[in-house]
Design brief:
single chain, Beta-Lactamase, Helix Hairpins, 4 domains, seven-stranded mixed β-sheet, 10 helices
């Protein structure tokens, strides 16, 4: 569809002006052409050459011109052959010519009508007028009205026997000037045709520029209603409808994104449930086995009983950790985690974290080393509780995938000017290069990492990502020569 740059308001104004001006223009031009054509015909017909439209201001002269030629011919007969006006065939011939001029002939001899070319009953009134008229008028351009319906032109003459005579040409006014009627009819028809043509053109233009885009928009709404979120509107125009279509397209894009996000969220939730179910299945199976062993008397010594109970306890701790992790992630996902930013001494905070973590890691045969390269008085600004979860989740991930009998985890604090960088590295087997860009995505797991011994919900690092983004801090991960290094930044005072 061709792009239309006119606003609807402008188009309506243009359409209004065209609807008003176009017929007037067509009527004006057409009237001039048609009037000139008709006036030429009227001038020739009424013998008023050169008079133009002004001839209509003198109806007597106009009507006189209609029968002027015949009038002159009768005058010539009356002068040179007056007795011929008594001959029936001659009179019929003349009257036949007058009929074409909406007129008829009367001939009187000694005030008696000897020929009447009309069958109208109104002739009686004409007779009466003639009886009161003296035989004195011979002016070829003369005429007078009778009863408001007729125009009388008369002339007197003398028959060869000396008898006074008179002939009259009577023109019917009601049937007069059909050409003028044709002129007016033509102008009216021209007005109607001009208005119809203009209306058709304007209707087509308005439909193309307004209703066609609305039809396309309607089709788009039906497509969206039926679930086709890929149906897009092409660029239509720069008017109000175009703006509406752009807003509709933005809505479609956002709706599509929302649906895709919802589908992705549903898939991730299903994956989470599957992961949690798998991770819970292992400790539950173990707990069930040890409980059955106790019930069956397998733990027949205090040492076995103590070992069985400790195992059950550890498995319940693992289950509780998984459930807490899931609950915490749910709070993050719904933005229900309040963040409280405090000013904290870098060395004191991270040395305490390292000391606390070292005890737990020692039991797992993992050595924790802490190194601080910043000034001991340096203060960082962050939510200390969430930072602790970040550190614990990163180290927890390293513990699960370190894959060595003797593990090593290092915490290194680096001064980077306006901020500090915390690096947490291990001596594990590293992360596959194809998995590295997605390691922080929620529920993401590499294909080789998922086993019952490693466990985990797959959301530990996604929690790290969510919390660091919420606090506006940079973070990342990269493979090193002897393992993996996670890092994140914190603002300093």
């Amino acid at each position: 569809m061709k792009k239309n740059t006119l606003k609807i308001r402008t188009r309506l104004v243009v359409a209004f002006l065209i609807v008003i001006c176009t017929p007037l223009f067509l009527i004006g031009v057409g009237s001039v052409i048609f009037t000139n054509y008709q006036m030429n015909a009227i001038e020739n017909y009424y013998n008023v050459d050169g008079e133009g439209i002004g001839a209509f201001s003198n109806t007597t002269k106009l009507l006189d011109g209609l029968t002027q030629k015949i009038h002159k011919e009768i005058l010539a007969l009356a002068k040179y052959s007056p007795d011929s006006l008594e001959k029936e065939d001659m009179l019929e011939k003349i009257n036949g010519q007058l009929k074409d001029k909406y007129s008829f002939l009367l001939v009187l001899k000694d005030k008696e009508v000897i020929y009447n070319g009309s069958t109208s009953e109104d002739v009686k009134s004409i007779y009466e007028s003639l009886n009161n008229f003296a035989y004195t008028n011979t002016d070829e351009d003369s005429g007078y009205y009778i009863t408001g319906k007729y125009l009388m032109k008369q002339a007197d003459f003398t028959f060869s026997d000396g008898t006074q005579g008179m002939f009259c040409i009577v023109t019917t006014i009601e049937k007069m000037v059909p050409e003028v009627q044709n002129l007016l009819t033509g102008i009216v028809l021209l007005i109607i045709v001009g208005m119809v043509v203009t209306a058709v053109v304007m209707t087509a233009w308005i439909y193309k520029s307004i209703f066609a885009p609305l039809k396309q928009l309607k089709k788009a709404t039906h497509e969206i209603r039926d679930g086709n979120l890929d149906y897009s509107l092409n660029e239509i125009s720069d008017d109000e409808i175009g703006d509406l279509c752009k807003d509709f397209e933005d809505m479609r894009q956002r709706l599509k994104e929302t649906v895709e996000e919802r589908l992705q969220y549903d898939r991730e939730n299903k994956e989470l449930i599957s992961n949690i179910s798998h991770d819970l299945k292992t400790p539950i199976t173990a707990i069930k086995g040890y409980v059955e062993g106790i019930m069956d008397g397998v733990a027949d010594t205090p040492e076995k009983m103590d070992r069985y109970i400790k195992t059950i306890y550890n498995k319940t701790i693992e289950m509780n950790r998984l459930i807490e992790e899931l609950t915490f992630y749910s709070k993050i996902d719904t933005n229900r985690i309040p963040y409280t930013f405090d000013k904290v001494n870098v060395d004191r905070y991270f040395s305490d974290c390292a000391e606390e973590l070292a005890l737990d890691l020692e039991e797992k045969n993992i050595d924790l080393r802490y190194k601080n390269d910043v000034d001991k008085s340096t203060i960082f600004i962050a939510d200390v509780e969430q930072i602790k979860k970040v550190v614990n989740n990163i180290i927890g991930n390293s513990v699960k995938y370190i894959g060595k009998d003797k593990g090593l985890i290092q915490i290194h604090i680096i001064d980077a000017g306006d901020f500090i960088q915390i690096e947490i590295s291990d001596n594990g087997k590293g992360i596959a290069q194809k998995d590295l860009p997605y390691i922080f995505d929620r529920f993401y797991r590499s294909d080789t990492s998922r086993n019952s011994m490693q466990g985990g919900s797959g959301i530990g690092l996604s929690i790290v990502k969510a919390m660091m983004e919420a606090m506006g801090q940079a973070f990342g991960v990269e493979n090193k020569e002897n393992g993996v290094e996670f890092w994140f930044e914190l603002d300093t005072e």
